[in-house]
């Protein structure tokens, strides 16, 4: 056992020198059937551990992943045998196999570091360089063990190139660890207390909205975050609500509808029906000829401009621009600012545009917006408009200009297709907003 462990350390050390292009001789390796087996077992355990770190979990090993990994052994041995035959030195087969497998520790560590450190916009180029490095080391393993004889070295490089291509593009890809089996989760909304509380939350929220003061132009805010599948929309809505209350003195004139299991006892559900009722209720509290409504919608959307809605076990209707325009008209809201932070949000501009309306969209009708990932505090556009733009100016139009520039800069830095945020400013609302800003 001591001899086998010493051989493993020797082979791993040689593999590190190979991967780092340090001086190396073929005599630096230990190559026997036992040495190859110990190296394979070590690499297998390393592969499982690295997959657990990448995927963030340990469950049951996936059978397909295990079969695929085990299939690399005959592929490796066959490639080593073929290279040894090309060099007419079949006794080098095991030594070649050990050399080709000896750098896996360095590759796994480098792959984990790349996953954490590669900039989003450069990830594809970084991984291309990573796989080019693996190929170069495989070719170097052939030259260290078998030498630079021509044309054998060219044929040997072709063999290891084919081996890598088969491993990357022919063998199936699957996650190594399947999620641990859990009992089926009961949707939070299915609990009786939460279900009945939801029946009361919207009524309470509407009753808390203060009536407008005659002779003053005030801002009312309605937030709508219907996609509870990712918490970024809920987090963002909480942040925007606080910012609007502070910046515009709007406490008591704010109502938020949001989905998400953590919000079921905090906010009324963000459904199309609740939005219609909320707009009607808030409009009844506003002074129609003086006050301005700011409606903020934050969610995913598809290329047919439908806003996503998710809150199991409910099957929720999706909001579209035509339905939203009808709701606002039916509610009797005259002065309105509608901000849509979603992919393809530009599709909301045409159905909503009129002289009394300002429409701000996070992206062109044919473009995606960004920053909708789970765990983020806000979307790219939501952060740029509310946390950056409105922190510097009370003008929504000027804040949009600042946000558009900030988003363009961030997208360019990450190599993303520009979202190109859009705006429509009605002639009448422009004058009303000046009064609000003052």
Percent strand? 5-15%
Query: What is the average per-residue confidence, as pLDDT, rounded to a whole number?
Result: 91
Structural class: alpha/beta
User: What's the count of strands?
Assistant: 8
Provide a descriptive summary of the structure in words.
- By secondary structure, the protein is of the alpha/beta class.
- Helix content is 53%, strand content 9%.
- It is built from 15 helices and eight strands.
- It has helices spanning 2-19, 33-55, 63-86, 93-101, 104-117, 123-146, 152-170, 192-207, 232-247, 272-285, 321-331, 349-352, 380-392, 396-413, 427-437, and strands at residues 60-61, 177-178, 219-225, 254-258, 292-298, 335-341, 357-361, 422-425.
- β3 (219-225), α9 and β4 (254-258) form a beta-alpha-beta unit.
- α2 (33-55) packs parallel to α4, α5 runs antiparallel to α6 (123-146) and α6 crosses α7.
